[in-house]
Write a structure and sequence with these properties.
Length: 98
């Protein structure tokens, strides 16, 4: 299922999601390649949010990237308040996928 390209995302919610992901990633015990890539995807999403006028398209693409990486690493984020599955659900909702 594809997201509607004209759909805008709630940038405040995405910002909160990024902050929570960053906290959980900092707590993650493993530093394998999958989590390192996820950290890079989260950094890229934060950069897309931190420009003067964030592009909803760039933020959506960043969310898709984070979602893909989360799907790959599974529930390796159980150390934090949310699991990988819960993040996937939240991102899907932000993208209008569920």
């Amino acid at each position: 299922m594809q997201s509607n390209p004209a759909r805008t995302v709630n940038l405040d919610e995405v910002g909160e999601l990024v902050e929570q992901l960053e906290r959980d990633l900092a707590k993650a015990r493993d530093s394998g390649a999958g989590l390192d890539i996820l950290r890079a995807e989260v950094e890229q999403l934060r950069a897309a949010l931190n420009v003067a006028q964030p592009s909803h398209h760039d933020v959506q693409m960043g969310l898709h990237g984070v979602r893909t990486r989360l799907d790959e690493v599974g529930d390796d984020l159980k150390s934090g308040a949310l699991t990988g599955t819960e993040y996937l659900t939240r991102i899907g909702r932000l993208l209008g996928l569920g």
